[in-house]
Amino acid sequence: MSTLPESVLEIAAEIRAGQCTAAQVLERSLDRIDAADASIGAFEDTRADTARSMAATVDEQVAAGHDPGPLAGVPIAIKDCIAVKGEPMTCGSRILDGYVSPFDAAAIERLRQAGAVLLGRTRCDEFAMGSSTEHCASGTVSNPWSHDHVPGGSSGGSAAAVAAGFVPAALGTDTGGSIRQPAALCGITGFKPSQGRVPRWGQVSFAPSMDQIGPFARTSADCAAIMQVIAGEDARDTTSAAATMGSVDLDAPADLSHLRIGVPQEHLDEGNHPAVNDGIERACDAARSLGATIVPVRLETTDLGIACYYVLGPAEASSNLARFDGVRYGRRADDVASLDELYERSRTEGLGAEARRRIVLGTWVLSAGYYDAYYNRALKVRRLIHDEYAARFSEVDLLLGATTPAPAFKLGSMSDPMSMYLCDRYTVTANIAGICGCSIPFGTADVDGTSLPVGVQLLGPLLGDHVVLQCAHALQQTTDHHLQRPPAGLNQN
Fold first, then answer.
1. How many angstroms separate the Cα of 467 from the Cα of each of 52, 359, 365, 437, 478?
2. For residue 399, with 0-12 CB atoms within 10 Å meaning exposed, 13-18 middle and 19 or more buried, which class applies?
3. Overall pTM surpassing 0.85 (yes/no)
4. Is residue 478 a part of any domain in this protein?
């Protein structure tokens, strides 16, 4: 077992070649989870028997001379707001107690067809609403780099599972930064695809105009391999993009001489932790050494993003979460005297404070007398943000900036919701505009004697996903930040 491969691409290649088995790789993951997840809490549930059956099928196909697919035998964890047939799905909420999905999400169907082994469900902030994975009904998740710190959110369980070495890859969702932010705080790579690039069929919606499923992995090459599987149009999601995703040439030399990369000066804010700005500067130096032209640019709508997002997102959530009413599925209050009381008690008992806060906020901004003042105004700001990104991408090919203003904060330290919301100031505008982005690790910060990761963010235009991943791959070919491992994780064979 000591020589088993670690990366998505290596695992799949060696299993297909018969150099190791899917069963061996899976058992290593299960052993690591058994040994260390009690102190991290990344997993809501592991389905060992189901995963072993999937791994056995892969090994049988290899033994029979068949190709199981591009992700043959790769253990992948799934965020608990993406439907897996026959599996519970709680979305981190008590209101879905007892719910079992009768179908697979489109992304899950594609993982199965590619030979992946679905290992289990990872914890997330309730209905993907949060930046720390502290708002999960079943418990918080710790950062593998320091168990006193958050892993980010809302996909913190998926990020922590990859960072701790439990799995080589995981799926998350990103509505305002929920893939990129935890990737940065956990020191791994996280990719948020363009809006529509991955079908959302089977993803429980928070804000469908901004939601997107995407991968976590150690490297952009592994993220690209997963994207080649899960991307593509699906007739069940009318917002999915018909355009095929360009390929990422993993054998190409690390050469960025064809790229102009803009650096938003707003991302080099004095309020950032110094290590964040240092990371941006070092990433610029690395890109420049590969031939890229680095251009300072302005993104003047950066500071409008949080206000815009927290009108649009809760407004959509208010509508989407109305279906969780205690009538059709999930938690149902007992001993009620009226339908109104059933709704009120089921939702009060089943929904946590952050979900209730956003539902109330969304209902308020959509109500008579406030709709024009808030929701319509936010739509106009959304157009400004979209247009500014379009203008920048007419001047440069990609943007390079901060993923987060600071490294991971301590569990329980962000009692003020607004302070938590501001952690996403550099990520939300990409979702508002629908563009793609990738966070890659680019150093560490010393925070009170604790070493914590720092990430930088590459942003690309709508459907420019392959360009972002190709650039990230080039940077990771010539740097070693993505090779660093958390001292508290289990990353040894």
1. 36, 37, 37, 10, 17
2. buried
3. yes
4. no
When pLDDT is averaged across residues 381-387 and rounded to a whole number, the result is 98
397 found inside a domain: no
Alpha carbons 399 and 104: distance in angstroms, whole number: 35
Gap between the Cα atoms of 14 and 10, Å rounded: 6
The tens digit of pLDDT for each residue in 26-53 reads 999 999 999 999 999 999 999 999 999 9
Tokens of 237: 């999601």
Number of structural domains (the chain) is 1
Alpha-carbon distances of 268 from 44, 123, 263, 272, 276, rounded to whole Å: 37, 32, 9, 7, 8
**Domain interval for residue 196:** 8-256
Taking the C-alpha atoms of residue 206 and residue 103, their distance in angstroms, rounded to an integer, is 19
Which pLDDT band, with edges at 50, 70 and 90, does 369 fall under? confident
The answer to whether residue 234 is domain-embedded is: yes
Q: What is the mean pLDDT of residues 222-244?
A: 97
Report yes or no on 159 lying in a domain.
Answer: yes
Catalytic (active-site) positions: 79, 154, 178
Longest Cα–Cα distance of the chain, Å, equals 71
